[in-house]
């Protein structure tokens, strides 16, 4: 444990590239397009719609990006590189603005970002963060940052929201069949590291999953959670086999490899993929035959992993086959539960919908959810996109010539209201019913805006820890 008297100092997980290049290309041309005399722009970001039954989101990921923007983010060599690239790319470049950032402001970005605390569970349609430039002459920076700020938050928030939703579905059924949610933190395991597009995606998405779970095999997520959010160890795994191990001695040697696993791990949980050749032979003749006494004598639990076939059938069949050779009991709720020395994990064919179908099939067959854990890979970290929740960041207010804020918005007739944006400087207010709602910042009592300052003029104002984030997102 860290000395509680020593404040946590977050670090950027991965170095940033030249921030002038981290944008949609057309952003470079927008400075000259705003009305003459524009001094300030205010933008907000939100999840615009529910995603197939998930109506709230868990805000996550902003701090990791703000660490890259903090301090001297822009230097004169970066300005020169940006100018050269823009010219070759066919776009205008606001050399004067960027040079002022690099010289007059010491490379610090003159913007303020106010955001919900990470881990906050908010209904869709609620502003998650607000961005405003802090000095005249830098209005273009507000929307310029859209590319990276939205990318940094839509992905982490989507994965965190998906993970929490699935954990909630597991929890409901676990209580129904087992009488409590004991063991819930390890019921959904992240298998997604190899199925994502980049190391950074694995780290961000994997950490987002760990907001609601403690089971993961995505090691980069642990590094991000430690460096960015101060988590000594955010998740856990166990020794486990893969097919390269189980087939190393051929079909005849599979049982020898199983025994080797048990001998190498006399205590604790171990997982073994058991379908390399014949899953039910492995259960009947190996685990429940020649190795049965070793399994029962261990001070720990053997987790059997099937990895092929229709999981709707394979999962209950695997559990019932293990019950035949190891025995079972009944929960107080009247569902069959395996001998405590044995459990099952299913990782093949798993997504948010199949998990629910599998659990409901188990319940139909009288099997407790305590028998099973799930590993989700691509369905957790990769099969998501910005459109799942309709994430957007929109300019909503402008100041011209030193005047008051004026609302700006879009409302395309062709979208039928689906893309109507909010007007005016936006805030988030907690209503009398306890729900967060969108409200113009001017109509929120002083000190009651749920969007709190997190970044201003290159300084990170509020450090959030993983423990705090988990507490806000906790299922109740």
UniProtKB/TrEMBL annotation:
Chemical reaction(s) catalysed: beta-nicotinamide D-ribonucleotide + diphosphate = 5-phospho-alpha-D-ribose 1-diphosphate + nicotinamide + H(+)
Binding site for beta-nicotinamide D-ribonucleotide: 217, 305-307, 347-348, 378, 386
Name of the top EC class for this enzyme: transferase
Domain Nicotinamide phosphoribosyltransferase N-terminal: from-to ranges: 21-113
Gene Ontology biological process terms in this record: NAD+ biosynthetic process
InterPro entries: Aldolase_TIM (IPR013785), DUF5598 (IPR041529), N/Namide_PRibTrfase (IPR041525), Nicotinamide_PRibTrfase (IPR016471), Nicotinate_pribotase-like_C (IPR036068)
Keyword Transmembrane listed: no
Keyword set, alphabetical order: Glycosyltransferase, Pyridine nucleotide biosynthesis, Transferase
Residues that bind diphosphate: 194, 243, 305
Enzyme Commission number: 2.4.2.12
Family label: Belongs to the NAPRTase family.
Protein name (record): Nicotinamide phosphoribosyltransferase
Native source organism of the sequence: Jannaschia pohangensis
Species classification: Bacteria, Pseudomonadati, Pseudomonadota, Alphaproteobacteria, Rhodobacterales
């Amino acid at each position: 444990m860290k000395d509680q008297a020593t404040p946590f100092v977050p670090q950027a997980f991965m170095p940033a590239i030249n921030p002038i290049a981290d944008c949609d290309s057309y952003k470079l041309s927008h400075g000259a397009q705003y009305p003459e005399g524009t001094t300030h722009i205010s933008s907000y970001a939100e999840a615009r719609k529910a995603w197939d039954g998930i109506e709230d989101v868990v805000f996550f990921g902003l701090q990791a990006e703000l660490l890259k923007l903090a301090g001297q983010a822009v230097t004169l060599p970066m300005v020169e590189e940006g100018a050269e690239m823009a010219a070759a790319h066919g776009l205008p470049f606001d050399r004067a603005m960027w040079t002022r950032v690099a010289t007059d402001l010491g490379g610090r970005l003159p913007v303020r970002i106010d955001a919900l605390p990470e881990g906050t569970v908010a209904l869709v349609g609620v502003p998650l963060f607000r961005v405003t430039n802090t000095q005249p002459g830098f209005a273009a920076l507000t929307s310029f940052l859209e590319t990276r700020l939205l990318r940094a938050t839509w992905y982490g928030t989507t994965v965190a929201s998906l993970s929490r939703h699935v954990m909630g579905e597991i929890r409901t059924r676990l209580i129904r069949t087992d009488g409590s949610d004991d063991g819930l933190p390890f019921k959904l395991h992240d298998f997604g590291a190899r199925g994502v597009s980049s190391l950074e995606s694995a780290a961000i998405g994997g950490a987002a999953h760990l907001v609601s779970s403690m089971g993961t095999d995505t090691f980069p997520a642990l590094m991000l959670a430690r460096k960015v959010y101060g988590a000594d160890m955010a998740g856990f795994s166990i020794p486990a086999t893969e097919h390269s191990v189980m087939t190393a001695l051929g079909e005849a040697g599979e049982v020898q490899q199983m025994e080797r696993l048990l001998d190498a791990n006399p205590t604790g949980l171990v997982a073994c993929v058991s379908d390399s050749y014949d899953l039910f032979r492995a259960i009947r003749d190996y685990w429940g035959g020649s190795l049965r006494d070793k399994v029962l004598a261990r001070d720990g639990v053997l987790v059997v992993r099937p990895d092929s076939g229709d999981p709707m059938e394979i999962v209950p069949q695997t559990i019932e086959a293990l019950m035949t050779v190891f025995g079972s009991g009944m929960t107080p709720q009247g569902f069959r539960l395996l001998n405590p020395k044995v459990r099952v994990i299913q990782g093949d064919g798993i997504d948010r919908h199949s998990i629910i179908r599998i659990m409901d099939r188990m319940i139909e067959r009288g099997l407790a959810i305590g028998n099973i854990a799930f590993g989700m890979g691509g369905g957790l970290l990769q099969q998501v996109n910005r459109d799942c929740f309709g994430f957007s960041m929109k300019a909503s207010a402008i100041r011209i010539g030193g005047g008051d804020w004026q609302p700006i918005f879009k409302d395309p007739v062709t979208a039928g209201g689906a893309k109507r944006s909010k007007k005016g400087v936006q805030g988030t207010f907690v209503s009398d019913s306890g729900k967060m709602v969108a409200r113009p910042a001017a109509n929120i009592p002083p000190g009651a805006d749920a969007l709190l300052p997190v970044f201003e003029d290159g300084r990170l104002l509020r450090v959030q820890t993983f423990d705090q984030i988990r507490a806000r997102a906790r299922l109740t």
